[in-house]
Fold this sequence. Notes:
Blueprint: H1 2-24, H2 39-65
Helix pairs in contact: 1-2
Amino acid sequence: MQTIGYVIGLLMVLLGLIWIGQGSGYFPYPASSFMIAQKIWMLWGAILAAAGIVVIVMLSRLRRRG
């Protein structure tokens, strides 16, 4: 079950970084994406990436306890 949690946390971080890249215009793929150069997607990406990091850290702390 923890492996699924780690995978979900990692996917959250990865997706958040992609959103940050698209929102900043640094990762303009696909070219027709509505997210390119839209600053709000940088914020949502940062929030999602931070939440993914929190999930990973919480799972690693629970693993050490039990």
